[in-house]
Amino acid sequence: MGHLTITRRELLKAGAATALAAPLAATAQGTGTDAASSPPAMSKVSFEVNGKVETLELDTRTTLLDALREHLHLTGTKKGCDHGQCGACTAIVDGRRINPCLTLAVMHEGARITTIEGLGTPNALHPMQAAFVEHDGFQCGYCTPGQICSAVAVLDEIEAGIPSHVSADLEARPEATVEELRERMSGNICRCGAYSNIIDAISDVAGIEA
């Protein structure tokens, strides 16, 4: 029985041909109706965004972040990590701050949503927006909309008596202290490192000494 002789070049060619043939074979097997891609499941959803009722028909997999940015063109809400880790997309939904990148738009039927565009205008800034300007609470500005929305909700949380991990007494109304503000804002990352100025801005609106 003779020995099989094959060169290294021939071996590489054979391996490449096999690698190319596999997906082609799989495609050929799936040329029937089963292989046809199904259209996305669509659903209508209505919610109030910055005081205006919006009705959209969306792929049910659309995140609230993409609905705001791509469908309503509210691009002040930033897409940062898209994994709920940076806080750049923070918006206020039914009075609570959330990361819209982590939730589906269709889950918020009838919700009241406030984005940075709904807090104030260039000619009538929200007090928190004005404080960020006064205290230079931003550098590149990418995280700023999420920082401001989160800061507004933080003061509402304290006013509502919701404790945090650093609240001394979980049964008593928490106080707006620098320690409380730092803890509650810890989910909003500023890659420029403007944290001290951000705390100064929030403390100013809260009426406390930073």
UniProtKB/TrEMBL annotation:
InterPro entries assigned: 2Fe-2S-bd, 2Fe-2S-bd_dom_sf, 2Fe-2S_ferredoxin-like_sf, 2Fe-2S_ferredoxin-type, 2Fe2S_fd_BS, Aldehyde_Oxdr_Iron-Sulfur, Beta-grasp_dom_sf, TAT_signal
GO molecular function: carboxylate reductase activity
Keywords, ordered alphabetically: Iron, Metal-binding, Oxidoreductase, Signal
Signal peptide: 1-28
Pfam entry (one): Fer2_2
SUPFAM superfamilies on file: 2Fe-2S ferredoxin-like (SSF54292), CO dehydrogenase ISP C-domain like (SSF47741)
Oxidoreductase as UniProt keyword: yes
EC id: 1.2.99.6
Keyword Magnesium: no
Domain 2Fe-2S ferredoxin-type residues, every copy: 43-119
CDD domains registered for this protein in UniProt: fer2 (cd00207)
Top-rank taxon, per record: Bacteria
Protein name: Aldehyde dehydrogenase iron-sulfur subunit PaoA
Organism: Luteimonas salinilitoris
